[in-house]
Every structure is written in C-alpha cells, then in structure tokens.
C-alpha cells in the first residue's frame, strides 16, 4: 500500500510474511498464493506491499539462480504484490515448534550473518518495483546480551562496516539504494533506541541505521517522542518501522491479571517482560519467568514482548500498547517530512495467541491481517497522508 505524504514523497505500508513462515523458495511462492493475494483481495486493492521474510535456504536459492529470482519477481507481479522491504532478523527455523533464543543466531559476530544479509540486499535490489529505488532490511540488534564481549563487539562492528561498503557497491552496480536497520529488542545487546546510538554513530554510514519496532519500544517503556528525537539529533537514520503492539497489564499484582497473562505464556516464542521501577527498568527473559513467584516487581504495570493484533486488544483486564504505536507513528510520518518511508505491520504471533483467539483457518488469518492493515491505513490518513491506488 502506498501513501502520498504532504511533502510529496511516497510512504510504503506492508505486512510481514513471517506470520506464515517458509524455509524454501517453493514455500515462499506458496505464501503469495495462499496468504498474500487473499489479503490483497480483501482490501480491494490492485497492489499490496508485503515485507518478505526469506530464510537462509530461500535466500541462497535466489542469489545462486538468477532465473529463480526472475521467477519470484514475475510471481509477485502476477499476484498484485510488491516488495520494498525484507525482514532479515530470523535466519531460519522461525516456524519451528520452539523458537525462543534460537532467533538470535547467527549474530553479527558470526560471518554467516554478514553473508546472509548481503544476500538479502542483492535479492531486494532485484525485487524492487521499477519505480522504486530504495529498499530496506531489518536485522537483529547485534546479538543476544549474554556471551557478547569486547572482542565480539569489535567483530560485529567490522561486519557492519563491511556491509555498508557492500551496499555502496550494490548501489553503484544497480542504481538501487538498500539500507539495513538494527532492530532494538529487549534482552539484546541493543535493547533500546538509546543503546543503538553508540554502535550506529560509530559506524556513521547512511545505509546502516535503525528499525523502530513499536512493540519493542513500548515493552522497554521508551517514550516515542524522546526516542525518535534522540535518533534525529544523533543523525541515526530510521530505515524502517515495524508497527506492532505489546501486551500491557496495568495491575500485575492482581490474581485475575496474572491468570489472564498466563494464557499468553506459550512455548514457541520468547516474551520478554518489563516493568518500570524507581530504580529503573526491570525485566525477565520470558513471561513465564515473570509470573513465577516474585521474579519481577508487580507494583507497577508490566509489558510483555508479545505482538498482539493491532485491531484487537486483549480482553480486560489486559490491553495493548496501541497508544504507543499511535504516538510513534505521529512522530515518524506526521511531521513536515517523514522520518522513514517504510512501514511494516509485523504481528507474527497469530498462532501463538491463546487458543480461543487463534485463527482456525486461512480465511480467518487473512481477515485478521486485512483488519490490521485497515487500521494502519486509517492511522496514516488521519495524519494527513493520502492513500494511492
């Protein structure tokens, strides 16, 4: 979906395909047929933006076989789909029964992360629509915090600097500018936008910036206005933003609230949980850990890294952090010029919701994704952007 900003530039809105992950190119093509095109049809649009997640094997196939890459581009065109951004955070296995800590491997101290992201950039340069010259890729925020020392930090810095050089060369070769954004996430070396300032300013390259995920922003209790202003002052580019909402519990000390939260404690994904205290931010690596005894203070609200559907906040006594998303979006694209032109709805946890809230068929999932995109569209038009055909 495309929107015209009041300054005349185009802002792209997509939804991320990691909600129905596939490891192979054949699986990706099946996604387009079974999921993406039905969402487009529900929205009544001739063209729909999708943010592709390409696992290791799919990316390698596309880089190694030009005919396969041309075939994917043809399939996108045939189904009325376009790609300006990729989700490069998960490497493989995102559809596994248990993902948890595995999603942070390989990290930026591992040469394979550089190789994979380089492949993604080369693929994206060929998938961009003919009238688009800028693409974006989100990636993990360096590494999970444990076992990350000074030596590994130096290795990661070198890898990102090498990536910047490769992106420059790709631009010279293709005329397409691909940028990569670190995506701060609770529990990682770069947990907040503030944590991102030092490594990104040290690299100091326009093609290496940040991906602002509004669920992660909210989970860490960051103020969107202050966070985005700090990035602007440090001249750290917002490469893209993922529009997502976290799980919010206003009174976690109440038994009924803990019972409601326990329904979201599931075995597949990690749901880092945070609370803000007088001494600062406190947290656990997972929701179950927070609910166990007194692992996390419960005198103040809790927020959990659980991407809940944008249009359907959990039933009371829980809610979502949609207000944080609204505030962030106003700062991102509501000013005289957009701070980013790539927006991506990323609710990958539909099948991890409590059983009674999960879609039971493809049609229900497509309905839900279309409803999220409709909400995002309305937020954009309320900010003065005009939806384009």
Low-confidence stretches: none
Q: Find the CATH superfamily.
A: Divalent-metal-dependent TIM barrel enzymes
Sheet/helix structural class: alpha/beta
Q: Helix-strand pattern, N to C?
A: EEHEHHEHEHEHEHHEEHEEHEEHEHE
- Assembly context of the chains: single chain
Number of domains: 1
The helix count comes to: 12
Under the CATH scheme, the architecture is Alpha-Beta Barrel
Helix content: 40-55%
* Biggest pleated sheet: 8 strands, parallel, barrel
Q: Which shape, going by the Cα principal axes?
A: globular
Determine and state the CATH class: Alpha Beta
Distance between the termini: 8 Å
Radius of gyration: 20 Å
Q: How many runs of DSSP E, i.e. beta strands?
A: 15
Q: In what order do the strands lie side by side in the largest sheet?
A: 2-3-4-5-6-7-8-14
CATH topology: TIM Barrel
Strand content: 15-25%
GO molecular function, one term: zinc ion binding
Protein name: Xylose isomerase
Keywords: Isomerase
Domain Xylose isomerase-like TIM barrel: 65-228
What does this molecule look like?
This protein has 389 residues and is of the alpha/beta class. The chain has a single domain (2-248, 313-387), classed as Alpha-Beta Barrel (TIM Barrel). 40% of the residues lie in helices and 20% in strands. The protein has twelve helices and 15 strands. It has helices at residues 25-43, 56-64, 66-78, 111-127, 150-174, 193-203, 214-219, 224-233, 255-262, 287-291, 322-333, 362-382, and strands at residues 2-4, 10-16, 48-52, 81-87, 134-139, 177-182, 208-213, 238-243, 245-249, 273-277, 280-284, 302-308, 318-320, 342-345, 386-387. The protein has an eight-stranded parallel β-barrel with strand order 2-3-4-5-6-7-8-14, surrounded by seven helices. Strands 11-10-12-9-13 form a five-stranded antiparallel sheet. The longest helix is centred in the middle third of the chain and has 25 residues, at 150-174.
């Amino acid at each position: 979906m495309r929107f015209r900003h009041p300054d005349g530039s185009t802002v792209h809105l997509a939804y991320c395909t990691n909600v129905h992950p596939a490891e192979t190119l054949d699986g990706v093509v099946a996604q387009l047929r079974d999921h993406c095109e039905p969402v487009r049809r529900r929205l009544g649009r001739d063209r729909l933006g999708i943010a592709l997640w390409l696992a290791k094997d799919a990316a390698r196939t596309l880089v190694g076989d030009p005919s396969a890459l041309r075939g994917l581009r043809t399939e996108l065109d045939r189904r009325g789909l376009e790609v300006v951004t990729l989700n490069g955070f998960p490497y493989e296995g995102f559809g596994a029964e248990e993902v948890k800590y595995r999603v942070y491997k390989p990290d930026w101290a591992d040469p394979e992360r550089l190789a994979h992201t380089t492949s993604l950039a080369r693929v994206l340069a060929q998938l961009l629509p003919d009238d688009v010259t800028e693409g974006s890729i989100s990636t993990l925020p360096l590494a999970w915090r444990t076992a990350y020392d000074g030596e590994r930090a130096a290795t990661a810095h070198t890898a990102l600097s090498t990536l910047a050089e490769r992106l420059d060369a790709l631009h010279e070769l293709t005329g397409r500018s691909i940028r990569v954004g670190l995506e701060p996430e609770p529990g990682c070396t770069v947990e907040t936008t503030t944590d991102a300032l030092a490594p990104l300013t040290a690299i100091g390259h326009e093609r290496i910036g940040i991906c602002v995920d509004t669920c992660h922003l909210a989970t860490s209790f960051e103020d969107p206005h202050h966070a985005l202003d700090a990035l602007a002052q440090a001249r750290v580019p917002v490469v893209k933003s993922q529009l997502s909402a976290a799980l919010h519990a206003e009174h976690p000390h109440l038994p009924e609230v803990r019972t409601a939260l326990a329904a979201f404690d599931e075995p597949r994904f990690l749901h880092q949980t945070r609370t803000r205290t007088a001494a600062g931010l406190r947290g656990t690596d997972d929701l179950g850990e927070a609910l166990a005894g007194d692992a996390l203070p419960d005198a103040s609200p809790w927020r959990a890294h659980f991407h809940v559907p944008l249009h359907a906040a959990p039933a009371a006594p829980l809610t979502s952090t949609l207000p944080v998303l609204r505030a962030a979006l106003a700062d991102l694209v509501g000013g005289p010029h957009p701070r980013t032109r790539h927006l991506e709805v990323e609710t990958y946890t539909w099948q991890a919701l409590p059983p009674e809230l999960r879609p039971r068929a493809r049609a229900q999932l497509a309905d839900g994704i279309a409803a999220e995109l409709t909400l995002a569209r309305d937020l954009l038009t309320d900010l003065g952007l005009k939806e384009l055909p």
